[in-house]
Amino acid sequence: MNANGQVPAAVDAAATSAPALVVRDLEKRYGRGDGAVTALDGVSFEVARGSVVGLLGPNGAGKTTALKSALGLLLPDAGTVSVMGVDVASDPKRAYRHVGAMLEGARNVYWRLTPRENLRFFASLQGLPQTEARAAYHDQLLETVDLADRAGDSLNDFSQGMKQKVALACTLARETPVVFLDEPTLGLDVEATRNLRERVRALADEEGRTVVLSSHDMDVVQAVCDRVVIMNEGRVVADDEVDSLVGLFRTREYAVTVDGSADTVRAALDGAFEPTAFRELAERTAFEVTVPDDRFYDLTDALRGAGLQVSSMSAVEPDLEEAFLRLTERGGETPRTAERVAPTPGPEGER
Ligand SMILES: Nc1ncnc2c1ncn2[C@@H]1O[C@H](COP(=O)(O)OP(=O)(O)OP(=O)(O)O)[C@@H](O)[C@H]1O
């Protein structure tokens, strides 16, 4: 719950049932002629209300350009964005009332004010009255970023990391239904990172707010996000639940140990599979092998045919980092695996 004990920020009538964020067919090129860079090449995705969605991609994938377009800070060449049902291009002020953003490199806080004064200031800009409940909410936010004991000190003496924490708390103090966080854990220490993870989940689970999070920290993304949208070279290459993306690769890579030599394994599998990471143990050989779903029994048959007895076989547990690397490793070309996770048109389920 927020300072009012309810879902924050009044939502206007047009916005009552639309998804929190709808991005449709966004295109953006920077520059002209030979030097032009295509930053967004037909980007579409939706974010359901009350969910936490990670926007991921390697450097230059177009994440910041997409977020800036969603905030109306940048005009796309084509496509539309709506926030809580409000079209950003035709009604930017109304759309902006629904969204708070902390963009990388833009830490807009007032150095002469204290953290508590900053929070009050950003809340009042949003038209939120100063109540006791709101003051208590601000204390909670300062706890989250581990600055409760510095709440009354001037920011002038704060380190960069501390100012960033204040900026994060100020973004949340606007109590907007949608929050964009660009690299929110950059520069945060372990304790503050853990608090932030919990706070982000609480924003969605307890306050019903929607968070779009861009981060290179896959542990954070895997821990807090319901879904991820992965971009590469200006396109969406995956849009799915975190568990599904990780699961895409779950049954594919196996760690195998057989009774027999590495040479026998190579002779049995080479040409048909690509065994790697060989380790010869006494009388046994351990190796890893990637197997397409429909060829698992070809693998076991080939080993058995060579007289090799399998003493252990386990799926190598992938994580989001592994999924991310596999989905983006092939440059601009959409990876084959992503065809299974490409976004399907149609509304997201409301939570
Ligand atoms: N103002 C600009 N002028 C020219 N090219 C730009 C500009 N801003 C971004 N680009 C280019 O557009 C592409 C997408 O950049 P963008 O910053 O959106 O990517 P990103 O995914 O946010 O990357 P990062 O993770 O490094 O922040 C890149 O090739 C980048 O060089």
UniProtKB/TrEMBL annotation:
Alphabetical list of SMART domains matching this protein: AAA
Domain ABC transporter as annotated: residue spans: 21-258
Gene Ontology molecular-function annotations: ATP binding; ATP hydrolysis activity
Ranges of Basic and acidic residues composition bias in the record: 328-339
Superkingdom of origin: Archaea
Any Pfam family the entry gives: ABC_tran
Gene3D superfamilies: P-loop containing nucleotide triphosphate hydrolases
TM region(s), chain numbering: none
Keywords from the named record: ATP-binding, Nucleotide-binding, Transport
PROSITE patterns associated with the record: ABC_TRANSPORTER_1, ABC_TRANSPORTER_2
Region of interest (Disordered), ranges: 328-351
Membership in a protein family: Belongs to the ABC transporter superfamily.
Name under which the protein is recorded: ABC transporter ATP-binding protein
Organism: Salinirubellus salinus
